[in-house]
């Protein structure tokens, strides 16, 4: 696959993922991580985390009045030890092992998001979800489904805005940890900048349509796509 075709595939995936996340609150990492892991594993998870910063800032600001700051605080507190554990996983794993972990964590996240019973966002559950998210997002870039499960029975604006705020704080923590560990490289910044235009396009589209979509069907489509992508990523090439 030529570099131009590869960029177009990644740009399309980024725009679609930004649209989906802006509309329903999750989906960006589930869509982009498997594709990025297959095509450019050296960019994972740093470039993915970089891309998610402006996206989650946009969503959090758009619906800032609906953020559950108390829950976000406990989630962020729980994320701190999880981030250190995720960094340890990233430092000891090979490229192939990381691909396998990304694929496996994606598949597990989809199955959990699809079948797990609902639970309320209380202090203990918030801290537990924060720790899990810290591990998986720092190591693989995928961290949305546990947060979506936590808030799945809350109003749509609260779910989207709170998850975005948690992501924003958590991604800053993860990127700082990766920088201290010497895991940030120029090529990751360049790819993130190159994919910024389709990300902004997808985000803008979600603003126009997020209140009109059948969120349930869209979420099911995202999870099905992510399941297939995660399974493909687990196949050794």
From TrEMBL:
InterPro entries (alphabetical): TM_pro_TauE-like, TSUP
Compartment(s): Cell membrane
Transmembrane segments: 7-37, 43-61, 98-117, 161-182, 188-209, 216-235
Source taxon at top rank: Bacteria
Alphabetically ordered keywords of this record: Cell membrane, Membrane, Transmembrane, Transmembrane helix, Transport
Cell membrane recorded as keyword: yes
Record membrane topology: Multi-pass membrane protein
PANTHER family to which the protein is assigned, alphabetical: MEMBRANE TRANSPORTER PROTEIN, TRANSMEMBRANE PROTEIN YFCA
Annotated family: Belongs to the 4-toluene sulfonate uptake permease (TSUP) (TC 2.A.102) family.
This protein's name: Probable membrane transporter protein
